[in-house]
Amino acid sequence: MSTELQTTSKSLYETDFVQWVETTVEQLRTQNYTEVDWANLIEEISDMSKRERKSLKSNLIIVLLHLLKWQYQPEGRGGSRRGSIREHRRRINDDLKDSLSLVPYLQEIWTECYENARQQASDETELSLDLFPIYCPYTQEQALSAEYLPD
Length: 151
What we know:
The protein is an all-alpha fold. It has helices spanning about 5-15, 15-30, 40-70, 80-100, 100-125, 140-145.
């Protein structure tokens, strides 16, 4: 790839990401591999995996947080909290269906996500951290089930 093409590709990547994606897709479709901005394409593909993992982690923390708040702050129960639990469960389950490799990752991050949810639940409810169990009281199946809500 010439220096001029590299500069043009990088400039396009930095100034108009959507156009860069469309251009890159067209270059790949037409097998115009010499024109592809490989460095940025590789970086973007690598970042896709990171974003998927980060999204799963964030959604899991929210589900666990709301389950704790549902259980330990019953006066806050309502449609909004139930809806948030349902929405984030749906996101997690969709991600797990789309990317089976995230299933072991979910198991890997479970304890860390629960601890984050536990601390946040204490902050948001202003209840003592000691009130919330040290170990997650919900199984993964319960946490991701559309029907489960703790008593």
